[in-house]
Each structure stands twice: as structure tokens, then as C-alpha cells.
Amino acid sequence: MTKTIFITGASTGIGKASAKLFAGKGWKVIATMRKPEAETELTQLENVIVLPLDVTNRQQIDETARQALAMGDIDVVFNNAGYALLGALEAITDDQLVRQMETNFLGVVRVTQAFIPYFREKKAGLFITTGSSAGLMGFPVSSMYDASKWALEGWSESLSFELNEFGIGIKTIEPGLVATEIGAKSVIATHPAYETLLGKFQAAISTDNVSSAEQIAQVVYEAATDGTNTLRYVCGDDAKVLYAQRLAVGDEAFREGIRQMLTTF
């Protein structure tokens, strides 16, 4: 029996790579994005349906969820839409910080809410979320992005208990840097007092040690099909190394290591 995955943020990066991978594995894919009229690649795939969805629009979330469910059974919801807001907190406007949380955190929460009743009734289903290594470790000049990803961590772990009552799973993918998304999807708030720190951090993340969107999509597919109740999938060599260091040395030593790393740039 053909399985179906519903994906948010499928126009680029991990979302698009996942849509193509699942379609190639014989899944039916409902790929959602803010501007489906601009999509030319996914619309050519026979088992992919493209629908409009801005995860900051609650009414559209409910409408698109209803439309997707009317098309047939859905097995996996992949909450992937998101972007990075970088810069010192002092430089970030209220509109910017609200939009970051509306997209990265509340968007995930609201899409999940829209599908829970359906999964609960059929006593099956899986939610997968694109988290980040920045949801496990704090980094410079990214406090609001990190906050949005840390929020997903606590939310997912707590939600797992109530979803488990009805046979529903929830998993989080924790990638490090992903090549296609560095800079391209970021919003950067600047302030002269923090220009040096921001420059050093940008130099530090502009490295060759990054994963491709296709590599992370493979982890998403593993999470969707491995049949385990694994909560977190730390992926990407950079994320695995840094997270192992964090666990090994503790909070303060890890923070000092990040500070020391920045002095080399």
C-alpha cells in the first residue's frame, strides 16, 4: 500500500530534497510551500502534489490540512518550514523576533495540531520536525533562532507522551550546517557594536564541513521508516562532533571552546 507524506517548506533545501527522495521511493508526496506557482521541478513528478501553505497563516494551515486529508490517507507529517534569524538581540526588531517564533516554532505546533485529530482517530501516524543542532547547543548571535529550535525540543519531548497514548510518533531531525541553506534563507540583523562578533561567527560557519540537503533527506527517510520510537536524530558530521563535545565537557567548557574557536577568525 502506497504511503503518503505531507511536507512543509518544500520549495528549497531539506524539504525539496525530501520530497524528491520520498517520491523516488514510491511514496505519494504532498509538498507545500508559500509560492507553489513558482515551483517547476516538483510539479513535474507524477506522485507529487504541490499545495500552498504559509505556516504563519493559521487559517491557511487548517484549509490546506483539510484539503490534503480529503485526498486520502496521510502517514507522515514532516514539519520542515523555517529559516534562521541571525544577529545580536539588540539589533533585532520586535517584528523580526515574532516572525521567527511564528515560523519556526508556532508554525510547527499549529500544523501538528491540525493533523493530531486525524492520527488519533486512526491510532497511527508520525510527525517529523526539522530541528537543529542549534536546538541542542547555543551559538553566538543567533539567540532567537536557537530559542525557536530549543522550544521545539521541549515541545516534542513533552508531546511524545500524549501522542504515544494513541500510537502516534514524533521525531526531530537535528542537522548541523546544511550547504543549500547557509545564507540563502537567513535574515541577518546588524548592529555596529556587534559587527566583529557577527563577522567572526559568519566566517566560522562558512566552512566545507557541511551536509547536503540530500544527506539530511536520507535521515528524514530513515526516521520515517525505521519503525523505532527514537526521539532525536543528530545528523551531519559537524553536529555529531560538536554535540559529543558538549556532552563530554559540559556547558561551561563547551562555551569556552566556542569562544576560543571564534578567536581564530
Automatic annotation (TrEMBL):
Give GO MF terms, alphabetically.
oxidoreductase activity
Which keywords, in A-to-Z order, does the entry hold? Oxidoreductase
Signal sequence span is: none
InterPro entries on file: NAD(P)-bd_dom_sf (IPR036291), SDR_fam (IPR002347), SDR_oxidoreductase (IPR051911)
Classification via Pfam families? adh_short
Does the record carry Lipid metabolism as a key word? no
Superkingdom of the organism of origin: Bacteria
Q: Which family does it belong to?
A: Belongs to the short-chain dehydrogenases/reductases (SDR) family.
- Sorted alphabetically, which PANTHER family does this protein's record hold? SHORT CHAIN DEHYDROGENASE (PTHR43976), SHORT-CHAIN DEHYDROGENASE_REDUCTASE FAMILY PROTEIN (PTHR43976:SF16)
Q: What is this protein called?
A: SDR family oxidoreductase
